[in-house]
Design goal:
The complex is a heterodimer of chains A (126) and B (450). Chain A is built from 4 helices and 6 strands. Chain A is α/β, with parallel strands linked by helices and 126 residues long. Chain A is globular. Chain B has 21 helices and 18 strands. In chain B, a hairpin with a 5-residue loop joins strand 3 and strand 4. Classes of the chains: A alpha/beta (126), B alpha/beta (450).
Chain lengths: 126, 450
């Protein structure tokens, strides 16, 4: 399984729409088997961000803030998105592998509001 | 004498303003977050305090060009920088930010303060203004286009045949689609058909259809375009190129509201609204005997004439913005507009291919441009070889010196979107001279923004 984490130095990038780097981790049976960095060209000069993310062939994306347009684009392509996550990348990855991503302190302020809002949307059949 | 607690007063004041305000310490942890900040970011105050500012703010500049960081490093404040954030509802919110350093009594920097203003309302207004200048995908603020916009709803509501005249690439099909989409037939089909694309015999079977056995190979019935458009609208493009024989057949559809598919024994009723378009002058074709007079009058119940792009150059900035915004949205680049020199080239060009040509020129430039502004190198090479002056002098011909001068000033102002400093520079006169001449000729700054 391929997991992508939007990273900014040692932290999760604050906003996926403007993120510059992805940590790409291959995970097998709960263990990270390989990892590599992917630079994103995100200054409006090249291929658009959704396309770059689409090309990575990822199953899971963990990121911080994300605009609705980008979120729905990724979800519609079958990518499981875990947004509104914050903290240090390595800790976040460990928390995810333990299945405690949102149970830990790795959520951005405003996460509850985001979730309430998007749960309603899903029920309405977005 | 009793003094109110200073902290409390400051808080009341800060909570009563509509700009968002937050402060950070030197570890980028939020130490203060006012009511408006909570509203704009949709993050509750208590959740924001003590968190990293980028986790709360989520602006597009946080990672690479944090304004607050620059202020703390250089000591220079940032004022009114336009950026966007994503609020806790996942919506992109355009804001303008200003930053300053916070110092204690001894002048030591202890943190930073950032104020930000929600620009969505301004954006909304701008969009509304833009909507006034666009009508079902047709863009224009020039008088002929505005007149067209005001007429279209009434034309659409009637069921009359419409003849759309206009040079190639001026948007005849867009107008036809707009008429259809505004008409009571909008939920029925819209069929566009180019009459010049096929030879006569094929044209007939294509338009009216045929019955099985009408000719060798006609194994089963084929409905024509008129049958497909039943209840809706048919748009016949290049009607001026139709042969005399087909003209007779079309005349019958218009007169009797019926037609005969090839090989049919009985006529079929046609409940179809006909819109026809041509880039030729049908009236003169009638005079030359190339187009049937009776058909001309049947088609010409309502005539819509589209101006060439050269005749409505004031729409150029709007059209350029429109196409670039669309290309940006489609391709995900950030091309902001045209450089001054590129504008000058476009302005001097006479666009024989009209809006379609402009669209192609911009697409060409868009492919070559990596971002920022489109410069002359990005434009197609044939534009550079244009004898610019010839084209530019054309509209200035005739009139007194004063008239010519007034027109030159007006056009320069338009080209620079009403920026007087740049217009004056281009005209080679002083800004105050420009101001004086504008006053003398009663020229108002054209409102191009929109």
């Amino acid at each position: 399984m391929k997991i992508a984490l939007a990273r900014w130095d040692k932290y999760i990038s604050p906003l996926l729409d403007a993120a510059q780097e992805i940590l790409l981790a291959e995970v097998d049976k709960g263990q990270v088997t390989s990892r590599r960095q992917v630079r994103l060209v995100n200054d409006g000069t090249g291929v658009s961000l959704p396309e770059q993310l689409g090309e990575l062939g990822i199953d899971v994306l963990i990121c911080g803030g994300i605009s609705n347009a980008l979120y729905y684009w990724l979800v519609a392509r079958g990518i499981q998105v875990f947004p509104w996550v914050s903290g240090e990348v390595e800790e976040v990855l460990r928390a995810y592998l333990r299945g405690e991503l949102y149970r830990s302190r790795h959520t951005m302020p405003g996460y509850q509001r985001w979730r309430r809002r998007h749960r309603r949307r899903w029920r309405r059949g977005w | 004498m009793r003094k109110p607690a200073p902290d409390n007063v400051a808080q009341v004041i800060l909570d009563s303003i509509s700009d968002g305000v937050f402060t950070v310490d030197l570890d980028w942890r939020i130490t203060y977050f006012n009511r408006a900040a909570a509203e704009i970011t949709q993050v509750p105050q208590e959740e924001a305090l003590g968190r990293f500012c980028w986790e709360v703010f989520r602006a597009n500049i946080c990672e690479r060009e944090c304004a607050l960081k620059r202020t703390l490093e250089t000591g220079c404040p940032v004022i009114n920088k336009a950026v966007y954030i994503v609020n806790a509802a996942g919506e992109r919110v355009p804001i303008s930010i200003s930053t300053a350093a916070l110092k204690d009594g001894s002048g030591r920097v202890i943190g930073g303060v950032e104020t930000f203003r929600d620009l969505s309302q301004v954006e909304e207004l701008r969009r509304e203004l833009y909507q006034k200048y666009s009508f079902m995908d047709i863009i224009g603020k020039s008088p002929p286009m505005q007149k067209l916009f005001s007429l279209l709803p009434d034309i659409a509501a009637s069921d009359a045949t419409v003849l759309i005249e206009g040079p190639t690439g001026s948007g005849k099909e867009l107008v036809a689609r707009a008429i259809h989409n505004l008409s009571p037939r909008r939920h029925r089909p819209f069929i566009a058909f180019n009459c010049a694309a096929l030879p006569d015999t094929l044209l007939e079977s294509e338009l009216f259809g045929y019955k099985a056995g009408a000719f060798t190979g006609a194994a089963k019935d084929k409905p024509g375009r008129f049958a497909l458009a039943q209840g809706g609208t048919i748009f016949l493009d290049e009607i001026g190129d139709v042969s005399p024989l087909m003209q007779v057949k079309l005349l019958r559809v218009l007169q009797e509201k019926e037609y005969e598919p090839l090989g049919a024994v009985a006529p079929v009723k046609a409940d179809v609204r006909i819109l026809a378009a041509t880039n030729k002058d049908l009236a003169s074709l009638v005079e030359q005997g190339l187009f049937r007079e009776d058909l001309y009058y049947r088609l010409n119940v309502i005539k819509v004439t589209l101006p060439s792009l050269a005749a409505r150059k004031e729409d150029l900035p709007l059209l350029v913005d429109h196409f670039l915004a669309r290309l940006n949205a489609l391709r995900g680049k950030a091309v902001e507009g045209l450089s001054e020199e590129a504008w000058r080239i476009l302005w001097g060009y006479h666009f024989p291919g009209n809006v379609r040509e402009l669209q192609n020129i911009l697409e060409h430039a868009y492919v070559l441009c990596k971002g920022g502004l489109i410069t002359p190198e990005h434009l197609p090479s044939y534009l550079h070889t244009q004898k610019r002056d010839q084209c530019r002098r054309q509209p200035l011909e005739g009139g007194t010196l004063a008239e010519v001068e007034a027109q030159a000033i007006y056009e320069a102002l338009l080209r620079h979107k009403g920026n007087r400093t740049r217009a004056a520079r281009e005209l080679g006169i002083d800004k105050t001279t420009l101001w004086r001449k504008m006053k003398r000729y009663g020229i108002k700054v054209p409102s191009v923004e929109g």
